[in-house]
Structures are given as structure tokens and as C-alpha cells.
Specification:
Length: about 475
């Protein structure tokens, strides 16, 4: 009986302990709250980045599935937005570049992010170029946020310039040009320079020498003669006149004790100069070419501390030209021909150097011609007349006899310059099909050179059709 009561007491105590533990667990659950009994909710996923491309000046409507609380554009100068409803935004592209559009929903959660790129209106540019040049089918265009890229080939430099101008209007200073002009844009310029220069000089002058015992007299008009004073013990004439290079005649006579000597400068000189040059140059379209048949003359230039340097000045027949091919038949040319020569007669002497005067005739013009046409630059005339009379007062005005007391000079210069320019579109030729002037020269043998006096076989210029040995190999 006692054992039965002990077992009952043990089970009552165990039941109370289990009940206490359960109550403690329930109390702890209510104390810490229901969060400790449930799993934590997952964080919202980040919004997807949406790429959107627009042409400058275009617009697009963006629709969302959730109401829009607010929207923000990173760079309003590139694109702008207008909220037209709680689920639609009106996007306007302004200028080239890239920016970002962010949209928030309720609860300040980001619902969408747009990467917006604005490029030039390439479709409109392509239509404009096609309307201007329908035959230009080799032009390729691509547009990006950094500008417009042009590639392919065009037929002429004029088309290239106009296409670039059209692209610049859509993307100022952001056009990358990789267009090429088709081959065959080489220009041959043939220039013929003809000049006739006539000069007429007339001079008449006298210097007199009069000597008597105990006296003398001389005239030195125009410095035809120079004086040399030599004192004499006997009392003779101490004056000697030195003849210069301008004196053309000397005469004298003696009458009693009087001695007369006459130095005469009488000259008539006619000069005729003919200048003919035919330079020919080939240049690419847009590139300058130059030609000079002449040389360079050294001119001393004094510097500080007694140092003299040398500068070289060009003279001769020169030509500078820049061709621009506008089309298959139109050529724009900037041409500057020049003819210059050294004039030592009118130069100067500096530090022991004879520095000549450089007489130049030049012309510069820009014209437009067709392939094979020529133009002439004429009217370059110069007519100078110079008259110089030196005389003694009163004596020089006496008719006829006054000529003995005058020195007269008449000079006339006439110059006429004509320049003719011809243009041709050219292409490279095969060397094997060309002939050189030296190909027809054949050296004479000893018999022909020493006994026959021939400087080449067949006489001057060689025989027709005769080609020297080795010319064929050089042509290859």
C-alpha cells in the first residue's frame, strides 16, 4: 500500500514539472514576439537595367505596370521627361549623349532604371544625302553617342565636302570621316611661259679738254672722264683726264698754242630677250606641287657683332599650283607662275659682295576649267620710257652748238609676258610602253667619231626607229 502511494506521488511531481516547462516555453514565445517563431521575409530584388536608344529630336512613351510615385533624369540637357499619367512617362531626346532615367513606386522602391542613349538622326541624314547624290551608292553611315561615322568611297572631292557639310549639321564637330575618294584624281598641268623683252638705249655726251701754255679747262659732265691732278715743275698742264668705259670716241686738234681734246659718248643699243619655258607637273587633287628652273643666289645678311650670314634667294622660272578635282570633268586650280632674273647692273655692293637686284614677274589666280581645256593669263605689259638730259646752264640751250655742253640719254623698255596653262586628268602609265630621249642615242665607233666627225650613229638624233642597246631592259 505504501508502495502504491509512493508511485502516485512520483507521477504527480513529474506532471507538474512538464506543465511548468510548457508554461515557461509559452511565456518566452509571447515575450520575444511572433517574429522569433516565423522565418524573416526575403529582400526585394534590384530593378532590371533597361537599354533605350533614341534619335535626337525624337520622343517615346514609357509605360509601367505599377503606379509611378516619382521619376528622375540624370542629365536634363540630353533628355527630358513629362509625366502624363500614373503609369506613363513621355521621354524627349534633346541632344547626343547618354543619361539614366530612374522610376520609383509606392514605398520608395525603385521599379525601373533606363539607360538612355541619344544619337543623331541617321535615317534623315541618309535620306538627305541620297536626294543630293543618288549615284553615290558607296557611302556608309553609322551613328553613336559620340557622333557620326562616315566610311566607304565617293566619286570626287566635291561630293566628299558636301557630305561632310551635311553630316556636320547633324553632329557639329563630331563627325569622323573615313571616306575615300576614288582613284584617278591626278592632274597634269602644262604651263607655257613666253616673254619678249625689248630695250632701246640712246646716249650722246661730250667732255672737253682745253689747254694753252699757262692755263687749261675741262668739262666733266655726266662723269664721262675722271681727272688726275699731277703738279709739274715746268708749269705744264697738271691735269690728265682718265677715260672711262662709257667713252666711245676720242678726238682732238691743235691750233697754234691751243690744244683741244674731245671725248665723245655716242651709243645706240637695242636689246631683245626671249624667254620661253614649258614646265609640266603632276599632282594629286588637293596637294600643292612646285617647279623651279633656275637656282638660288647667296646674299650676305649682316648680323650683330660683325657676323655675316648667308641667305639664298630663288630665281628663274617657277610654278606653284594646287588642283582640286570637282568632278570627272571639272577641275579647280590655284596657280602661281613666276619668272625672275638677276640684275647686277642695278644691284648694290655690301661688305665686298656684289648683291644683284632680282627682277620678278609673277601672277596668281584661281580658276575652274574642264579636262583638256586651257586658259591664258595675258595683258602683263610693261612700257618704260626714261629721258635724262644733263647740261651746262645757258651753254646747253644754244641750238646745235649746245649739244657740246649737254649729255642726253634716252631709254625705252618694253616687256610682254603671256602665260598659257593647260590641264589634264591623268593616270599612271606602264614604263615598258614609254620611250626616253636617250633611247635613240647610239655611241659612234672610232671610225665614225675621228674620221667621219660623227658624234652619234646616224647623225644628229639617230636614225628613225633605232634604239640603243639596253634600252629595252631599262624600260622594264
Amino acid at each position: 500500500m505504501e508502495d502504491q502511494r509512493g508511485r502516485n506521488r512520483y507521477w504527480r511531481q513529474a506532471t507538474m514539472v512538464r506543465t511548468s516547462i510548457a508554461l515557461v516555453a509559452v511565456g518566452a514565445a509571447f515575450w520575444w514576439g511572433p517574429q522569433s517563431l516565423l522565418a524573416a521575409p526575403a529582400a526585394p530584388a534590384p530593378p532590371e537595367l533597361i537599354s533605350l536608344r533614341l534619335a535626337a529630336g525624337k520622343s517615346q512613351i514609357i509605360s509601367t505596370s505599377v503606379p509611378i510615385k516619382r521619376a528622375s533624369i540624370a542629365n536634363p540637357a540630353i533628355a527630358d521627361t513629362v509625366l502624363i499619367s500614373n503609369t506613363q512617362i513621355y521621354l524627349i531626346a534633346k541632344t547626343m549623349g547618354s543619361t539614366t532615367l530612374t522610376i520609383w513606386r509606392e514605398g520608395d522602391h525603385v521599379s525601373a532604371v533606363y539607360d538612355i542613349g541619344v544619337s543623331p538622326d541617321l535615317l534623315r541624314l541618309q535620306q538627305e544625302v541620297s536626294e543630293m547624290f543618288p549615284e553615290e551608292t558607296g557611302i556608309r553611315m553609322s551613328a553613336g553617342q559620340e557622333g557620326i561615322h562616315l566610311s566607304g568611297r565617293v566619286s570626287s572631292a566635291v561630293v566628299l565636302a558636301r557630305v561632310l557639310a551635311a553630316a556636320e549639321s547633324y553632329a557639329p564637330a563630331k563627325v569622323k570621316n573615313m571616306l575615300e575618294v576614288e582613284a584617278g584624281q591626278q592632274v597634269l598641268l602644262e604651263v607655257r611661259i613666253a616673254e619678249m623683252n625689248r630695250a632701246l638705249i640712246k646716249r650722246l655726251g661730250f667732255n672737253l679738254n682745253y689747254a694753252v701754255p699757262g692755263g687749261f679747262g675741262v668739262t666733266l659732265l655726266n662723269q664721262l672722264t675722271n681727272l688726275n691732278f699731277t703738279p709739274t715743275v715746268s708749269g705744264g698742264n697738271p691735269i690728265d683726264q682718265i677715260v672711262t668705259s662709257t667713252i666711245s670716241a676720242v678726238g682732238g686738234f691743235k691750233s697754234g698754242n691751243m690744244t683741244w681734246t674731245m671725248f665723245i659718248d655716242a651709243l645706240k643699243e637695242e636689246d631683245l630677250v626671249k624667254v620661253l619655258a614649258r614646265p609640266a607637273l603632276v599632282s594629286l587633287s588637293g596637294q600643292e606641287a612646285s617647279f623651279l628652273a633656275g637656282g638660288e643666289f647667296p646674299i650676305p645678311v649682316p648680323q650683330a657683332f660683325g657676323v655675316t650670314t648667308i641667305q639664298f634667294k630663288k630665281f628663274g622660272v617657277g610654278l606653284n599650283f594646287t588642283p582640286t578635282v570637282l568632278s570627272d570633268q571639272q577641275i579647280n586650280i590655284a596657280v602661281s607662275p613666276e619668272v625672275s632674273e638677276l640684275d647686277f647692273a642695278n644691284g648694290l655692293r655690301q661688305q665686298g659682295f656684289n648683291v644683284p637686284l632680282i627682277t620678278s614677274r609673277r601672277a596668281s589666280t584661281v580658276i575652274q576649267v574642264k579636262d583638256g581645256q586651257s586658259f591664258m593669263i595675258g595683258g602683263l605689259l610693261k612700257d618704260n620710257v626714261t629721258e635724262i638730259i644733263r647740261q651746262f646752264p645757258v651753254l646747253g640751250d644754244i641750238p646745235i652748238l649746245g649739244a657740246l655742253f649737254r649729255s642726253s640719254q634716252f631709254q625705252k623698255n618694253e616687256t610682254e609676258l603671256v602665260i598659257i596653262v593647260s590641264t589634264h586628268m591623268v593616270k599612271p602609265l606602264k614604263m615598258a610602253e614609254q620611250r626616253l630621249p636617250t633611247d635613240y642615242y647610239v655611241e659612234p665607233n672610232d671610225f665614225e667619231f675621228f674620221l667621219m666627225g660623227m658624234i652619234e650613229q646616224g647623225g644628229f638624233g639617230g636614225q628613225a626607229g633605232q634604239v640603243r642597246p639596253g634600252a629595252e631592259s631599262l624600260a622594264r
